[in-house]
Design a protein that fits this description.
mainly beta, 63% strand, four-stranded antiparallel beta sheet, Jelly Rolls
Length: 108
């Protein structure tokens, strides 16, 4: 794998930290600003006895679906969220989903 230098004067500007958590049947957890992009980790934890199916989406596109056991945890790492895109999930009532990461300013 090789990389290329975009510009010798490129500066990556951190805009904000990303941190959101929700427990329940589904919601939009985080929406990236229109002038930014983010790299996030998504943690999934089910604490119910019977388990459930969880679906994670970015910009309305499914990026992960799995059946969770009674005390299952999952971690999705390095997920790209583009300008104005939302991270959302659907799952059972005993599922907690957490989004953490960094939002960057998308400008020269």
């Amino acid at each position: 794998m090789s990389g290329a230098v975009i510009s010798s004067n490129t500066t990556i500007k951190v805009s904000a930290a990303v941190s959101a958590t929700s427990t329940g049947t589904g919601t939009t957890l985080y929406t990236c600003a229109a002038s930014s992009y983010a790299i996030v980790n998504i943690g999934i934890k089910d604490t119910g006895g019977a388990g459930t199916t969880v679906t994670i989406s970015v910009d309305g596109k499914e990026i992960h679906q799995s059946a969770l056991g009674a005390t299952t945890t999952r971690l999705l790492q390095g997920i790209y969220v583009g300008p104005s895109q939302a991270v959302s999930f659907s799952a059972g009532a005993s599922t907690t989903v957490t989004v953490t990461g960094v939002e960057f300013i998308n400008s020269p």
